[in-house]
Amino acid sequence: MGRSRVRSTLKAVLLLLPVAALEVACSRPPEQQMLNQFFRAARNRDNTTAAMMATVALDPRTQGSVEDFSITSVGAERREPLPHKALMEAAEKARQEEAEFQRRKKEYSDANLATIEEILKIENQPNVKFTPLQAKVKPEWDKWRADTAMFVKNLSTARAAATAATALPEASLAQPGQPEFDVKAFEGEMVSKDVAIRAQVKGPDGQTAEKDLTITLSKAVGTQAGTAREGKWIITKIAGL
């Protein structure tokens, strides 16, 4: 083979190398880089970075760490409306009901304050004997106290549900240069998909095993004050560990 032909062949190979590299890069699913970053952060116990990418933890000390993986399939996207507004309305209703209850309780307490104070002083004494008025007020006051715990619990549960419902869209939409998530102005839905991977998982005991894991990714999509918003993918579930 002559020198000119060798040079021509070498030049053609060198020209093809960037194309081949690009094809390899493009063949990787877009989820690959994100999962790489998350598993690396989890391995290094970089909790700050991991928390920005996921609502679930992967603690190498108790769950193990993903040392390497390959994506075997990416499922179709699923969409469901965000429930945060309905849950916020439920929390507000619970707040109003609790406030109204406290108002009525105070009215009763003010009207029977002396008798209630007497009951509180003696109710835990052995063989206590109540006056007729105390015997009438005590079961009524006991019910007010029991109902207080119920209303407080209902309010706490409703607020926790509303907070949990806003946590994921807020995490998804929190991006540099983007407006802050406004829970009252945002209208939209959550988009989710499952990514199946075959992973080399190093357990807390140091042993490595191959496992098939399913990673659920979710992101918020919608509008805020009339402006289109699309959040980043967040890891919301890791199944198969």
Q: Can you describe this structure?
A:
This protein has 241 residues and is α+β, with helices and mostly antiparallel strands. Helix content is 52%, strand content 24%. Strands 1, 2, 3, 4, 5 and 6 form a six-stranded antiparallel beta sheet that branches. Strand 3 and strand 4 form a beta hairpin.
Question: Summary?
Answer:
By secondary structure, this protein is an alpha+beta fold.
Annotation keywords:
2 domains, 6-stranded antiparallel sheet, 52% helix, single chain, 241 residues, alpha+beta, 24% strand
Radius of gyration: 30 Å
The ordered string of helix (H) and strand (E) elements is HHHEEHHHEEEE
Largest sheet: 6 strands, antiparallel
Number of strands: 6
Q: Write down the domain tally.
A: 2
Low-confidence stretches: 9-26
List the helices and strands and how they pair.
Layout lengths: L2 H25 L3 H13 L3 H7 L11 E10 L3 E4 L2 H28 L1 H10 L9 H42 L12 E17 L5 E17 L2 E4 L3 E6 L2
Antiparallel strand pairs: 1-3, 2-3, 3-4, 4-5, 4-6
Helix pairs in contact: 2-3, 4-6, 5-6
